[in-house]
Design goal:
single chain, seven-stranded parallel β-sheet, six-stranded parallel β-sheet, 15 strands, 17% strand
């Protein structure tokens, strides 16, 4: 059994399906010792998601096989949707009791997280994980003030794990140097999504009245303005592609408007929010996944990873953070909010299912490198490098 060399305290708001498996891996691999501090408090187990407009409780285990604790949150309105939703008066004392060598903070835009980063500057090796980009940046007085603030905030960070190219550019703009950055790519459970669910997928298509020769375009996520589902609906209707269907999966503020504008078209379908165990079936039922976001704030788009793991062709706007890293010969990137361009691309892609199948195979190949193991290895590599450097004796000359 390998002995733990370094103790890492991880600070994040609540358990999610994109990070809990990484924490589990880190604990199982036993290269570093970890403990996760969940700052939302136990109320995060059943949280109301304003984007979906309902309480969400994931149907896969997110708290198994790694050490964690809930930190008391005294916020009047607890949650990760605003700066004052995470207030933890005893967070620092809880971390001190653990006696870590390093700190990894997920997101600075919460009262408690910013406080702990400032407190441990120069006391611990402070690492950071975020996925912001410059895709929505505009020159203005407000942007200049923001740059000053963020440059100052990131002075509290010794090292950041960036998720992709756009995120790396963001960190560099706000003061972090290349040697302070390591790639830890945004990832999902590739194996779970790639597992064969073809029988269930065929059954779903049959229920929706979609034959095997027709093309099914899928949008899956929150039905909200920044993701532009109305743009996709409008483009799909205007494209008038024979033997094609469009499926929206999710809930949100635009649900009723989308259904009204779909006007009960026989080839436009809607499904409510589907939990994690069901989503691989949904993705495997489609031929083309589309995320037409306009932002602001489409930092990555992990639904794209999920669709790619299921071997699907991808169509995304240039406002989707992952586009530059994940979409090349496996799909198309179009200019956001450009209906005519989206219509033309939909017509081209949906004209031949064999092309979509080939693109889907490329997606499956590309996404293999974007894995939980890659994230865990990046964290382990940087922390063990730092730990070892602390104990290198200076060379003396005789």
């Amino acid at each position: 059994m390998k002995l733990f060399n370094m103790r890492l305290a991880i600070v994040t708001t609540h358990p999610i399906q994109y990070y809990a498996p990484v924490f589990r891996l880190l604990h199982q691999r036993r290269i570093i010792q970890i403990k996760v501090f969940y700052t939302w408090g136990e109320g995060a187990i059943q949280k109301h998601d304003p984007g979906f407009g309902k309480n969400i409780e994931w149907d896969i285990p997110l708290l198994d096989e790694y050490p964690y604790e809930w930190v008391k949150n005294t916020a009047t309105d607890p949650g990760s949707h605003h700066n004052k939703g995470i207030i933890n008066p005893d967070l620092i004392s809880r971390i001190e009791e653990y006696k870590p060598d390093a700190l990894l903070v997920f997101g600075w835009a919460y009262h408690a997280h910013a406080k702990v980063m400032r407190y441990y500057k120069s006391k611990l090796f402070v690492c950071f994980r975020g996925d912001s980009t410059l895709l929505d940046e505009k020159s203005s007085y407000r942007a200049a003030i923001r740059k000053l603030f963020l440059t100052r905030m990131y002075k509290n960070v010794d090292h950041a794990f960036y998720v992709g190219s756009n995120n790396k550019a963001y960190f560099k703009k706000y003061g972090l140097k290349s040697e302070q950055l390591s790639l830890a790519p945004h990832a999902i459970d590739n194996d779970r999504f790639a597992a064969d669910r073809s029988v269930e997928a065929a059954r779903l298509r049959n229920i929706l009245g979609i034959d095997k020769d027709s093309v099914l375009v899928l949008f899956a996520g929150k039905l909200e303005e920044k993701k532009s589902p109305l743009l996709l609906l409008d483009a799909f209707k205007k494209a008038g592609i024979n033997h094609s269907h469009l499926l929206f999966v999710g809930n949100g503020a635009l649900a009723n408007k989308l259904k009204s504008e779909a006007d009960q078209a026989a080839n436009i379908h809607f499904m409510d929010f589907q939990n994690q165990t069901s989503m691989p079936v949904v993705y495997q039922a489609c031929d083309l996944f589309c995320l037409p976001s306009k932002g602001p704030g489409e930092t990555w788009g992990l639904a794209v990873n999920e669709a790619m793991a299921c071997g699907k062709a991808i169509l995304v706007s240039d406002k989707v953070g992952c586009a530059v890293d994940l979409v090349s010969n496996n799909g198309v990137i179009f200019k956001s909010e450009q209906t005519d361009e989206l219509i033309a691309v939909l017509k081209s892609l949906c004209a031949d299912k064999t092309i979509l199948t080939k693109m889907g195979k490329r997606s499956a190949e590309i996404i293999r490198n974007f894995s939980f193991v890659a994230i865990a290895k990046a964290i382990e590599s940087k922390l063990t490098e730092h730990y070892n450097q602390r104990f290198i004796l200076p060379v003396t000359r005789s």
